[in-house]
Amino acid sequence: MSRSVEGPEGQIHVEDLNLNCNEYDTFVVVSSVLFVLYLAVKAKKNIKSICNRGSCIIVSYYALLWIVTLLNLARSVLQAWQCTPGKEVAWNMLSLFTASGMLYLEISLMAFLLNNGYMNAMETLAHTSTVSGIVVCMDTLLKAIYVFGFGVPLFNRTVGSTHTFLWGLWIIHKLLLAAAYGFILFVQFSKWREKLPLRQTFYNYVVVMFIFNAITLFACGLAGTGAGLGNWLYNFTVMCYHALYLPFLYVTFLADFFQEEDFLLDNAYYSEMKDAGFFDADWE
Q: How far apart are CA 242 and CA 69, in angstroms?
């Protein structure tokens, strides 16, 4: 099958994109399905816990987690769209919304970690939502211009080293994320560490995400130079991100909130989050 798309470097043949419709990330599909089933099984208990606690932050974050999880599931199941005639626009739109949702979760968590000096949960939620919304809107707009304006195959696998626009954008994207997580790690070991509500679970999350984005940045750099290892490593990191990030986020930041009330009252992790303004007592 031979097709052409218009790109910033002229006509680009599908063969040049090196797409293989037979390639299917079964691990991503299985992981996404299992996580949706897990959330569904826990939904009744979790919603009851949210209603009892009355946390506007957890309500909004839990709802967003559900939306992004379903988008990620749809993206996983519909992977073949990326090289199916007539489905390119739909695939790019689905991938763009999924990527934006997952990035919003990441940015808002970093904003929570760096949050300081807000008196209540509503103020915290408003601040983090504003910061996250601005960053994600700018990122989404830039990606949309690349994909729909210049025809860059941003969300297609194994596109090769000739697409300098693509790898340039991903290098900048991953560099900024790695720098953000690196900054949080720096604060953790600086004299300002008391400003962060970081316990071991928070610290582990930041370390894992810093290492992951550093590896992805390295993979993008290799792929941009034409190294086959770079393409393979980049595809592997994308697979891991879509398969594991949402469960990892849930376990790190939401699981404790949904435990039994007596456990939460004695849990230092919950108390520290409450002191930082993560939870409020009333629906205000």
A: 9
